Automatic annotation (TrEMBL):
Gene3D superfamilies: 2.40.360.20. This is Uncharacterized protein. Residues 1-30 form the signal peptide. It comes from Chitinimonas arctica. Keywords: Signal. The keyword Signal applies.
Length: 253
């Protein structure tokens, strides 16, 4: 097994929201550190996975080992898409990075499956430098019962490089989402919110079934906002493993 090495904060963090293709995972098992609600009394779960609307914006902060790396502007839009059910989420660094990298995800939202991912793009300026498409459509399935795990799998077809001569690869993504419980978070700016906590375990396999990358992350979702925090391991080019974190600053509905 080999770990994918990266220091691409924008693409890594963006994909960790759903598909941690760029991250290597830790080995410790995450657990909830707050008292769990009684069975059948968990109204928070019904509202924490907020489905973003057309025109929504938010600012998120990306850190490594608690050191700020960048702030990111997340925007949702479907005004230019022929299918009104499809949205595009764009993530850009603020201020723009030297290489002007941004990430786009095209997805659909339904009541029981907030994130049905169609494709991902990484752009350098206006030039598309990487594209990933999912067959069948990649559905992020979040359990409703604490302790429950839901699994989904899809084939990921990736094109990387110039449009006339891209590098093409195909892998299998296996994703497991576990509902760990509910917690109260204190975010930057002393913003306090209740949140649902999920653990995501993802495995990338070759077509032959060999494991290429294993990743794990914890994510917290809050009512009327959605994702407010995510933690994950980042494997740097020099072989070090650092603690990555994404936190909500402002914005939302």
């Amino acid at each position: 097994m080999k770990n994918l090495k990266t220091e691409l904060p924008l693409s890594a963090v963006a994909l960790c929201f759903g598909t941690c293709l760029f991250l290597s995972g830790g080995s410790a098992h995450a657990t909830s550190d707050t008292e769990l609600p009684p069975a059948g009394n968990n109204s928070l779960r019904n509202t924490c996975l907020y489905i973003s609307r057309d025109g929504d914006q938010r600012t998120m902060r990306y850190s490594l080992d608690d050191q700020k790396q960048s702030d990111q502007l997340w925007t949702w839009d479907n005004a230019k898409l022929p299918d009104p059910r499809t949205r595009v989420r764009t993530i850009k660094n603020m201020p723009a990075s030297a290489d002007n990298i941004s990430h786009r995800r095209y997805f659909r939202s339904y009541e029981n499956y907030p994130y049905i991912n169609l494709s991902d793009e990484i752009l350098k300026g206006e030039e598309k430098v990487e594209e990933s498409t999912y067959t069948s459509t990649y559905i992020e399935r979040y359990p409703f019962t604490i302790g429950e795990t839901l699994e989904t799998s899809t084939m990921v077809d990736r094109k990387r490089g110039p449009g006339s001569n891209p590098e093409i690869s195909s892998t299998k993504l296996i994703a497991k989402e576990t509902y760990l419980g509910n917690e109260t978070l204190v975010l930057p700016g002393n913003f306090t919110t209740p949140a649902c906590k999920f653990e995501s375990n993802q495995e990338i396999q070759s077509r032959s079934g060999a494991t290429l990358v294993v990743s794990k992350s914890n994510s917290w979702y809050a009512p009327e906002i959605g994702l407010v925090k995510s933690t994950f391991d980042v494997r740097t080019f020099d072989g070090q493993t650092r603690q990555g974190k994404l936190e909500y600053l402002r914005g939302g509905r």
